[in-house]
Amino acid sequence: MLAGQLGLEKAHIPHVDRHGLVWLDRGRLEVEAGCLRFITAGGGALAARDYQIPHQAVSIVLLGPGSSVTHDALRLLARHGCALAAIGEGAVRFYTAPPLMPDSSALARAQARAWADPAQRMAVARAMYALRFGEIVRTRDIEALRGQEGARIKRAYALAADRFGVRWAGRHYDRADPEGGDLPNQAINHAGAAMTAAASVAVAAVGAIPQLGFVHEDSGQSFVLDIADLHRHDALLDIAFGAVAEARGQPIERVVRQRAARLFRQRGIIPTMIDQIKSLLAQADEARP
C-alpha cells in the first residue's frame, strides 16, 4: 500500500543508472512512513542527525560498525533491488552481502562470455596487467604474465620500503602461520585482506560473478582477487609500509585497518574498482566477433 501511495514502483531506477554506494556507521537503519532513514548520534563518519536514504538511487548500502538494521529496512531494500553489506571500518572487512540481483544480467553475461572464450579471457587478463603495470602488455601467455608480475612486485616492495623508511628483507609468507613473518610481511598480509574486502564490495555492487576470474582460477572469489590485485602495486603497498612506519608498538593489524580505511576514502578505491570492472568487461564485449 505504501509503495503505491508514495509512487515508489514508478520511481524504480535501473541499476545501470544508479549512483553506487552509501556508507553508514554508528546508527540505526529503519523505515518511517515508507522511507528509508538512518538515525545516528554521530561519532563516526556522519554528523549526528536523521538522514533519509535514497534507496532507489543507490546500488548497495554499506553498513559499518556500531549499526543496526530493522526487518522493515531489509524488506524495503530487497523490494527495490538495493543490496546491503555489513563491512568493517572503511570497508576493510566484508562480512556479508545478500544477493544483489540487479534488474539486468548484461554485465554478468559479458563476464561469462569473456571468461568462456580463451581469446577474450586472455585479452581481459592482459588488460588487467596493463592497468597494473601502466603500459601495454605484449605477451599472450598467462604464465609469462605471472612471471613479469613476480619480478615487478619484488621491485615494488623494495621501492615502497625505501619510500617509507622501512627495513625490508624480502617477502615471506607461510599460509600455516600468517602472523609468523616480520612486521612488514604481517602488514602486507593484513593490507591484502583489506583490499580483498574492498574488491568484494565492488564486485557485489555491480552484480558480477565472483568465481569467474581471468588471472586467478581456483578460488571461489577469483574475480574478486583479480580486482584486488589491480591495486597491489600502489595502494596496498602504501597501506602496508605506511602502517609499519606509523605503528610504533601499536598492534599492526589495527594500524593497517585504520590506514586502509583512510586511503580507501581519500583515493576512492571502491568507486575506481567499480569503474574498472565495467570498463574491462565492456571492452571484452565490444571486441567479440
* Secondary structure tally, helices: 10
Shape: flat
The end-to-end span amounts to 48 Å
CATH architecture of the largest domain: Up-down Bundle
Structure description:
By secondary structure, the chain is an alpha/beta fold. The chain folds into two domains: 2-87, Ribosomal Protein L15, Chain: K, domain 2; 106-286, CRISPR-associated endonuclease Cas1, C-terminal domain (Four Helix Bundle (Hemerythrin (Met), subunit A)). It contains ten helices and eight strands. The protein has helices spanning 2-6, 71-79, 106-116, 118-133, 142-164, 183-206, 222-229, 232-247, 252-267, 269-286, and strands spanning 21-24, 27-32, 35-40, 49-52, 60-63, 68-69, 83-87, 94-96. The strands form two sheets. Strands 1-5-7-8 form a four-stranded mixed β-sheet, with helices on both faces. Strands 4-3-2-6 form a four-stranded mixed β-sheet. A hairpin with a 2-residue loop joins strand 2 and strand 3 (35-40). Helix 5 (142-164) runs parallel beside helix 8. The chain is flat and about 60 Å long. Keywords: Antiviral defense, DNA-binding, Endonuclease, Hydrolase, Magnesium, Manganese, Metal-binding, Nuclease. This is CRISPR-associated endonuclease Cas1. Homodimer, forms a heterotetramer with a Cas2 homodimer. InterPro entries: Cas1, CRISPR-assoc_Cas1, CRISPR-assoc_Cas1_C, CRISPR-assoc_Cas1_ECOLI, CRISPR-assoc_Cas1_N.
